[in-house]
Amino acid sequence: SLGMRSRAITFARHFEVCGPTSASRFGRKTRLTMSFFAENFWGEKNNGFDVVYHNMKHGQISVKEMVDYLRESASVQELYSKSWNKLAKQAANSSQQGTFSPVWQIIRLMNEKMAGVYTELVHRLQEVVKELQKYGEEQRNKHKAVKEEVQPTADVVQSFQSTTAAIVKAKENYNTRCLEYERLKREGASPKEVEKAEAKFTKAKEDYTQLVDKYENTRVDFSKKMTDTSNQFQEIEEIHLSYMFDIIAKYAQCFHHAHFTIMQIEEEFKRHSEDLGIQKLIQNFAESKGTGTEKPAAVEFEECDLSSLPPAIAMDTVENNGKETPVMEKAVDKLTKKKESFLKSKKKKDKKKKKKDQIDNVSTGS
Q: How far apart are CA 111 and CA 90, in angstroms?
């Protein structure tokens, strides 16, 4: 439809003018101003690393799903191409008789060109699929390399999580031992009980202090590595999204090119139809199928030519004012009388017809 065609053209032109800057698929590129990943994936349980890492891996799923979609889109366009070819054959097999027959030729030509448009569209979409598949292979290799690069971050995350859990328990144990030691002192417990409680308190305090120091060192290392890795993941995601939008732009451009060609075919079909026209179709039919241009001439009564007959030999006497009349003269006289009778009868009929026509004209006029 014109609406869909207009949206496809607008979409393609948008990416031609405003689309993401081209860059090598996994090369360095200008980062966004905001470090969104580095500022939004911390939290109490420190699970941000897992979230951004699996988000990177999900990019492979996006590529696979996009490949499947483009293939299905190409299959749909291939069906269009086959349908247009079927219509072209139907037009070619239509009747070649009658004034309308030349129109089937331009319809067939239009259908064949439309089939060609969709065949080319299928080819263009398949090229985009190949390009995306190649990117998918490179993406998987890049992700394997990234996994090794961020392994130190994964290790420090695990260490920090275990240290955080350990320091919570150490703090609880220290508080318990501290309260127990102070309670026994204030209640005046035996020196042996107080000494035993003090030893447990001292041990708990040392463990807690050591974990606090370890936590701080781990925290500093975790914060630095997590910040750097988050920025790295964001950059990978920016490049991935940039490339995916390039694919979308090429997808739209395929349809833009197809619709532009379709508009040209439509204009050509319209022009050919107008060039034929009603007058030209009738003229072509008359000139190609005509049976002649001479109209039949008027026919008049002609006397019988008796010159080819031999002279009369026998004579027959016929009363004719007391004279003898040859047989030949008798026959001519008979024919002459028949002619006069025929002419009188015809004249009488013409007169009656003329009178009838006058009466009909008077009736029609009133």
A: 10
